Amino acid sequence: MTQETGAICTALLTVLALLLASPAPAQDGPVRQWLKERRQQRQQPPPAGPLAPGDHRFTLQHDGLARAYRVHVPASYLAQRPAALLVALHGGGGNMDFQADDSKYGLLSKSEREGFVVVFPNGYSKLASGKFATWNAGRCCGAARDAKVDDVGFIREVVARVSTQLDIDPQRVYATGMSNGGLMAYRLACEASDVFSAIAPVAGTDNTVSCTPARPVSVLHIHAKNDSHVLFEGGAGPDSVARHLVTDFTSVPDSVAKWAALNGCAATPPKRVLEKPGAYCEEHAPCRGGARVQSCVTESGGHSWPGGTKARAAESPSTAISANDVMWEFFSRR
Q1: What is the maximal distance between C-alpha atoms in the chain?
Q2: Greater model confidence, 7 or 93
């Protein structure tokens, strides 16, 4: 390595260290400001007219941060025929591109088959690439929680922008998410019930600090009994990340019971609405305002998206049910 090359490497490492060390999103140093401006220059600005079918990438400024999101418009979309909108939130340490990878989650294919628009917001990341991002879902997770990032406001703005670019049915705006993204979907139900009529968290429970929804929100919770990250019976499991980055997770039964109470569901045992080898679904109904609260539980699959593909060094997802299929059936019945 020449002296000049070594100096360049040292400078790059210094820039990266400064970037990663900055904890406060509201006070950007010169390095972060320069990187932010460069990132904004590279990103596609919002279009002047409606979006065409296909994939689109955007950024917006919210609460002093440059935030990114992707939009997929199905080929069947037609203006003047309001479409449903699904906000899909990646897991902690992931990013919007990972959640939008059809080989992993299959949400683009489901969008094309059912005709709904799907949006993939990017969580808060200290990196210009947007990778290793997290969501401020209340008591979890990571840098987004610690910096008190306004993810609810950001996602509200994303939905508002997409609704000006496409003909979206305001009564059919839904949210789903994996792990930390599922936790964030619960926070949206608590604090943005005027926007979202139903959510379907996968492998992520309700860990909100406070929850006073203005109207009932239907909830479908999807979880594996043997999840070793977000434990079914509560707590952070042995395969969870460093404990200071997460929380002592609420259990699945407590999360479901909380929303059955919030939605004023009948105080009777839930009804088994699906039972097959390796999985079952139970529903609380009737509930106030026509809402429903349902849980779908797989016997295996660990911390994964049922019907998806295996992540490295992880247990294969359950094939007893498809998260995409059961959630869309749940959304469509409202």
Answers
A1: 74
A2: 93
Rounded distance, CA 218 to CA 285, Å?
10
Q: Which CATH number covers residue 202? A: 3.40.50.1820
Domain total in the chain: 1
Residue 116's nearest CA partner among 266, 321, 268, 331 is 331
For residue 266, tell me if it sits in a domain. yes
CA 194 – CA 192 distance, rounded (Å): 5
Q: Which domain holds residue 226?
A: 27-332
**pLDDT for 17:** 37
Q: SS3 for 86?
A: strand
Find the mean pLDDT for residues 117-134.
97
Q: Does residue 94 sit in helix, strand or coil?
A: strand
**Residue 149's closest CA among 265, 25, 253, 49?**
25
Residue 327 domain flag: yes
63 C-beta neighbours (distance < 10 Å), count: 14
Question: What are the tokens at 334?
Answer: 């409202």
Query: In which element (H, E) is residue 211 found?
Result: none
Helices and strands: H and E segment counts in the chain? 10, 10
Tokens representing 97 are 């591109």
pTM: 0.86
Q: Which residues pair with 85 in a beta bridge?
A: 117, 173
Q: What is the rounded average pLDDT for all residues in the chain?
A: 89
Alpha helices per DSSP H over the chain = 3-21, 30-42, 96-99, 102-105, 107-114, 142-146, 151-165, 180-191, 252-262, 323-332
| Contact assessment for residue 235 and residue 216, using Cβ atoms and an 8 Å cutoff | no
Q: How many residues does the chain have?
A: 334
Per the CB < 8 A criterion, the answer to whether 141 and 245 are in contact is yes
In a domain, 16, yes or no: no
Q: Indicate whether 282 belongs to any domain.
A: yes
Tell me the Ramachandran region of residue 126: left when phi exceeds 0, alpha when psi lies from -120 to 50, beta otherwise. Answer: alpha
CB distance 201 to 281 below 8 Å:
no
